[in-house]
């Protein structure tokens, strides 16, 4: 799953950065990693811009970021089993 697919309020763990689009170069991927989008880090999709578009407000650790859609499409995430279980119980 990509970070761009996470619903508003959704929690996940970063799996890593991937080259998701032609306009994302290796420098962008390195920048995302240096900002903290590294494997195992918890991430939360806070909200999207007007009309559900850009920018995407995400929180990783204690830091808030505004990402372009193409950047969010370059971050692979997974939802831990514990979050699947608690969402199903709700």
What does this structure look like?
The protein has a single domain, classed as Ferrous iron transport protein A (FeoA) (SH3 type barrels, Roll). The protein has a five-stranded antiparallel beta sheet with strand order 4-3-2-1-5. The chain has helices at residues 26-35, 69-72, 81-89; strands at residues 11-17, 42-48, 56-60, 63-67, 75-78. It has three helices and five strands. By secondary structure, it is of the alpha+beta class. The model has no long low-confidence stretch (mean pLDDT 90).
What structural keywords apply?
5 strands; globular; five-stranded antiparallel beta sheet; 3 helices; SH3 type barrels; 26% helix; alpha+beta
Largest sheet, strands/sense/barrel = 5 strands, antiparallel
Strand content: 25-35%
The CATH topology annotation reads as: SH3 type barrels
Using only C-alpha atoms, the radius of gyration works out to 13 Å
Question: Secondary-structure blueprint of this entry?
Answer:
Elements: E1 11-17, H1 26-35, E2 42-48, E3 56-60, E4 63-67, H2 69-72, E5 75-78, H3 81-89
Brief overview:
The chain has 90 residues and is an alpha+beta fold. It is 26% helix and 31% strand.
């Amino acid at each position: 799953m990509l970070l761009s697919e996470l619903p508003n309020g959704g929690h996940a763990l970063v799996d890593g950065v991937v080259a998701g689009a032609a306009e994302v170069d290796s420098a962008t991927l390195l920048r995302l990693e240096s900002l903290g989008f590294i494997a195992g880090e918890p991430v939360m999709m806070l909200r999207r811009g007007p009309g559900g578009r850009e920018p995407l407000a995400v929180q990783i650790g204690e830091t808030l970021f505004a990402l372009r859609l193409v950047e969010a499409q370059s971050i692979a995430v997974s939802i831990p089993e514990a979050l699947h279980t608690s969402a199903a119980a709700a």
